[in-house]
Each structure stands twice: as C-alpha cells, then as structure tokens.
Design a protein that fits this description.
Elements lengths: L2 E5 L3 E2 L5 E8 L9 E7 L6 E7 L4 E3 L7 E6 L4 E6 L8 E9 L2 E4 L3 E5 L2
C-alpha cells in the first residue's frame, strides 16, 4: 500500500495560485493502473473531487473547476502536483491526495489551505 503526503503553503492570497505537492512512497506513480486524485473539503461541507491523473499521465478534471485546475506529475521525484489558479476564500479547504488501484484506496493526511489577504 502506498503512502501519500501532501505539502504546500497553508496560506494563499486571493487571486494567487495555490500549488500543492503529493509525495508518494511505497510505490511508483507510473505503476499500472494507478489513478491519483486530488479531493478537497471546505469547512462545514462535503468532499469535492477536483481531478485525477492516471499512471500513464492522462488527466480528467471536475467540470466546475476545470478552467482553474491543473494536475501534473514528476516521475523522477514520484510526485503528483496540483495547481489551482485565481483562488478566492471559497477555495479554503483541507486538500487531500488520494490513490486508487484495483479497488484499493489510500489517502494522505490532508493539508489545510486558507485563502485570505
């Protein structure tokens, strides 16, 4: 089972770009047929799926966030990255990196990101 660890700034100013990294250990991000997703949970609200990058680098995004979201990978570092542009206070949330493989899922512990001036 892979282990996931999110990292990035905990505070981002409105209109800036939120950038997070997910460090994966215990397995390669290119192993067939892993899918690596970013999910967030705003305070007092439910989980929101943001997008996914597959083991072979294909990406899919939530329709509501597609225009502002980019998920990429660095295979040399075994990292998955998230960028969310033009953030507003409504993007304040705990952000999770997750994996799915053959019906088995893993989650990182999550990282709190607050959007505030």
């Amino acid at each position: 089972q892979v282990q996931l660890q999110e990292s990035g700034p905990g505070l981002v100013k409105p209109s800036q770009t939120l950038s997070l990294t997910c460090t994966v250990s215990g397995g390669s991000i290119t192993t067939s047929y892993y899918a690596w997703s970013w999910i967030r949970q705003p305070p007092g609200k439910g989980l929101e799926w943001m997008g996914v990058i597959t083991y072979d680098g294909v990406t899919y995004y939530s329709a509501s966030l597609k225009s502002r979201t980019s998920i990429s990978r660095d295979t040399s570092k075994n990292h998955i990255s998230l960028q969310l542009t033009s953030v507003t206070p409504e993007d304040t949330a705990v952000y999770y990196c997750t994996s799915l493989w053959s019906g088995l899922g893993s989650w990182g512990q999550g990282t709190q990101v607050t959007v505030s001036s």
